[in-house]
Write a structure and sequence with these properties.
The chain has 339 residues and is of the alpha/beta class. The chain contains 13 helices and 14 strands. The strands form four sheets. A five-stranded parallel sheet has the order 5-4-3-6-7. Strands 11-8-13-14 form a four-stranded parallel sheet, sandwiched between helices. A three-stranded antiparallel sheet has the order 9-10-12. It is globular, with a radius of gyration of 23 Å. The termini are far apart.
Length: 339
């Protein structure tokens, strides 16, 4: 795969420079070089300078990025929703079958190359902007900030992965920043306003539910032996709360995600269990873990089979957050959303 990507990059270079290896001579060469330099200068002047504060890093853009590597589906979807598909040079290979683009975006995603994770592949892609979670920027993944910076490549880290307790506000920040970088501020503002209205409508629908009547929700992300991986904070927890629910394991750990035991699930006794669909562990395996464990037989959610399955990508850092929140609220309080 790596060799194919490098060969592809070489082919792209040849197609841009032309098949002939003979360079223009004399004044013609100078004229061509001057024309290119003049055009580049005009483009730079027209773009101006865009400065983005990205966590503790300040990113400066003096020209429009032309080849963007999206290290995850969420960043690619944000780009496509803003009408920036043509700037995406590649995106990550999906980690599971559940990691698919929104149906309405499927046709626009079809031509976007899927790239295996490696710094070599990012370089072969000739990306001039890399967008990803903080975990993407490691030497063993796509490459560190320094590795890209030494090649003149800008890196934008998804805001929600830079803060201690991510909320939907961080999603708005990323969309706003993309709008600034690609000079589509109006589109970004319209998309954010649409999401905010959806959230406001959800909160209005569940606003009269008293604290004592709110449903208690446990997130089943994955399991290993007697341990369950669940959420203590972050976007999924925030969306549960915006939908009028209570995260049963809220603030049980300093980290955003943590391993806990079956005993915690018994003790919290949730009304609803949300299953995150992704990775190698199947939904059938996760359901069997809940349904066939005698220790969980009396847990309210298990007794009532009050299960909601969501693809993990719907509760990550992108435009799906608002619709995921609505799905939660409709499942928590169906009577509030009857037509």
């Amino acid at each position: 795969m790596k060799k194919r990507l490098i060969a592809l990059a070489a082919a792209i270079v040849l197609s841009v420079t032309g098949c002939s290896t003979a360079a223009p001579s004399g004044s013609k060469q100078a004229e061509t070089s001057g024309s290119i330099a003049e055009t580049a200068g005009q483009q730079k002047e027209a773009y101006g300078e865009v400065v983005i504060q990205n966590g503790e890093r300040t990113i400066t853009f003096t020209s429009m990025p032309q080849k963007v590597l999206c290290c995850n589906l969420y960043s690619a979807e944000n780009m496509v929703m803003l009408g920036l598909k043509d700037y995406i040079a590649g995106r990550n290979v999906p980690a599971s079958k559940a990691e698919t683009p929104l149906p309405e975006l499927a046709d626009e995603f079809a031509p976007i190359p899927e790239i295996e994770v490696s710094h070599e592949n990012a370089v072969a892609l000739e990306a001039d902007l890399v967008i990803g979670q903080i975990s993407s920027f490691q030497e063993s993944k796509w490459g560190t900030y320094d590795m890209f910076g030494n090649k003149g490549v800008n890196c934008y880290t998804i805001t929600g992965t830079l803060v201690k307790d991510e909320t939907i506000e961080d999603v708005y920040t990323d969309i706003e920043n993309l709008g600034k970088i690609f000079k589509v501020e109006d589109r970004a503002s319209a998309l954010i306003d649409k999401m905010k209205k959806e959230i406001t409508d959800i909160q209005s629908a569940v606003s009269d539910i008293e604290e004592k009547d709110k449903v208690k929700v446990f997130v089943m992300d994955s399991f290993k032996g007697n341990e369950i991986y669940t959420t203590s904070a972050g976007l999924q927890s925030n969306l549960i709360e915006l939908a009028g629910g209570i995260n049963a394991t809220r603030n049980m750990a300093d980290s955003r995600w943590f391993n806990t035991s079956v005993e915690t699930l018994v003790k919290t006794n949730p009304d609803i269990i949300i299953f995150n669909d992704y990775g190698q562990q199947t939904m059938e395996e996760k359901m069997d873990f809940m349904n066939n464990n005698p220790a969980l037989a009396d847990v309210t959610a298990v007794k009532n089979k009050a299960y909601l399955t969501v693809p993990l990508v719907t509760v990550m850092q992108n435009i799906r957050s608002a619709s995921a929140c609505k799905s939660f609220a409709e499942f928590f309080y169906p009577e509030k959303f009857k037509q």
